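To the structural biology subgroup,

Please find below the input and predicted structure for Tetratricopeptide repeat protein, which we are adding to the shared reference set this quarter. The sequence is reproduced verbatim from the submission form. If anyone notices a discrepancy with their own records, reply to this email rather than editing the shared folder directly, so we keep one authoritative version.
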Amino acid sequence: MGAKITYFVMAAFLAVWFVLVGGRGVALIQQGTAVTVTLGLAALVLPAIGVWFLWMNTRFVTRANRLAAELEAEGGLPVDELRRTPDGRIDRDSADEVFARRRAETEDAPDDWRCWFRLAVAYRDAHDTPRARKAMQRAIALHDRRPLAS
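Predicted structure (tokenized):
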């Protein structure tokens, strides 16, 4: 629940920032000189990119959570079997062992979104966020029966 609150607080903060920067961009455009119009347009591009980025991430998180809920209802969520150091961090060798099993499971059933979901969790546990995201995107695409991007 804490992660959701943090996400919504940050999204609200970004929305306010988008409005403020957009307002400055409009004010610069209204000045009417070549320099201020150029700067104003540039200032409007930043909130547009930010809105797109926020939308794409919100959509990704919503879809991933939907898959997690479905997998939990089936009893297929991966169990946390990782060893931890005394300070609570994931033991690297333990994460590698679980990752190897998840990768083999996914290689055996490459069209099963459940395997890709569990592989994404294993990537995250191994601190490989880019690959975790790609694996989760693949799980979402397989679940939704959409064409897979290469």
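Summary notes: DSSP finds five helices and no strands in the chain. Residues 34-74 form the longest helix (41 residues).

Regards,
Lab coordination
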